[in-house]
Design brief:
two-stranded antiparallel ribbon
Length: 50
């Protein structure tokens, strides 16, 4: 990712659990393609979908 991008210009995805949009984060730089959840809370509750 290039440095100094506006937050609105960062890539985003939709969380598969809560269906909310979330933006790219530096900690996900290496595996952005495999990120599915917006937070640890959603990742832990992935089996509790209603």
């Amino acid at each position: 990712m290039p440095k100094h991008q506006k937050k609105s210009e960062l890539p985003s995805k939709i969380c598969v659990v809560c269906a909310r949009p979330f933006s790219w984060r530096r900690k996900w730089a290496r595996d952005w393609e495999t990120v599915k959840y917006c937070s640890d809370r959603c990742r832990q509750s992935k089996g509790d979908r209603r």
